[in-house]
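does this look right to u?? adenosine-5'-triphosphate version
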Amino acid sequence: MIEVRRLVKRFGLKTVLRGVDFHVEQGEFVALLGPNGAGKTTFLRILASLARPTLGEVRINGYLLPQQAAAVRQRLGVVSHLPLLYGDLTAEENLRFYGRLYGLDGLDGRVSELLARVGLAERRRDLVRTFSRGMQQRLAIGRALIHQPDVLLLDEPHTGLDQDACEMLDTILRDVAAQGQTVVMTSHDLARAEDLATRFDVLSRGVIVASAAAQALPPEGLLSFYRQALRAPAQKGAA
Ligand SMILES: Nc1ncnc2c1ncn2[C@@H]1O[C@H](COP(=O)(O)OP(=O)(O)OP(=O)(O)O)[C@@H](O)[C@H]1O
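got this back:
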C-alpha cells in the first residue's frame, strides 16, 4: 500500500531524511515514533504529497509521488498540525465542501454520521472560527474521513484533544483499522501508540533505526523497544 525507497529530503544544505525505506501493507496500523526533530512530520508530509522528495521513490497504492499526486490524494485522508478548515463555513458546510472536492454526492447521511462520530452533532451549524482548537481538531478528523480513504495519515492527532476526544479518536482509529484501512500515525504518546498500532517504526536523525510488529515487542513493552532503538547505531541509510 505504501512503498518508500531510499527517500532523501533536504532543505537547502540541511538533510532531514537520509535514505528512508518504509513498506506498509494494506490494513497495517503503523506508529511512527521518534524524538523531536527526527523528521516524522517531514516524512508524513511527503507521503501526503504536501512536500516533494529530494531523492528516492515514494508509491502509494501503486501511484508514484509527486507525479501522480492527484490520484494519491483521492485515496488519502490527512490529519496534520493544521486543521485545513474554513472558518467562515459551519462544521457541516466544511464537510460538504470537502466531500464535493472528492466528487461525492448525496452527502447528508455521511456528514451527519461523521459529525456524530466526532462529537460535533450539536455544533453542526456553528461557524468553525468560533470553535476551540480541540473542536477544530475533531472536525479535521471528520474531514480526513469524509471520502473513506484507503490510507489515513495522522501527525500527532491526539495533541490538543481532551480526554473524551482522545478516547473518541481511539475508537474511530480502531474502527478504521477494523475496516481494513491503512493507518500511519506519528506520536509521542507511547502508551496510546502501543494500544492502537500493529507495528512500530522508530525514526531517528532521518533514518528508520528500528521496526517491530506488535507481537515482536519485547515483554517489557514499547517503551523498552523505543529506548533500545534510540541507543542503537543507525543501521541503514546514514549518509
Ligand atoms: N521547511 C523547512 N525548512 C528547513 N528545515 C525544516 C523545514 N521543515 C522541517 N525542517 C527541519 O527538519 C527537521 C525535522 O523536522 P520535523 O518537523 O520533520 O521533525 P519531527 O520528527 O516531526 O519533530 P517533532 O516531534 O518535534 O514534531 C528539523 O530539524 C526541522 O527544523
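The pocket of adenosine-5'-triphosphate is lined by residues 11, 14, 16, 34, 36-42 (CB under 6 Å). idk if thats expected tbh
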